[in-house]
Amino acid sequence: MGTKSRESIYGASVRASAERAMEARKVADRLACEAWNKRMLAFQGPAQPSPALGDALNAGYLYLEVKCFGCDTHQTVALDIVRRPKTTPIHELERYMRCKDCSEVRRYPYKRSHLVALRRTKISASDPPSHWWPGEQ
Q: Residues 17-41: pLDDT tens digits?
């Protein structure tokens, strides 16, 4: 002789709304990351404002491509192992980037790097580094 629980009455609609909200967040994060990538590749910045670390991971961008001004190498940094809060904007990671090769040559932490773009995969032979503009080699 009881009544229906709130779970049985509203449960399906609440779960469906939460699922739609999660998909909308994922789409919004992906669009924010794509806009930031286009701004960085087309104009070489400005890096601010940038998506948060958690937003990039949510959108499927697992790597950050960084260029060293000392030796002109492009390297990728895995975003899922970065020890910063997920609310940290991507542009704040630039100050922590150090080029290992240049630091070994100079014997001090060399930190002249520039953020290039967010990437879904690491740099490899089949997926080369990004170019800032069409004429860059």
A: 999 999 999 999 999 999 999 988 8
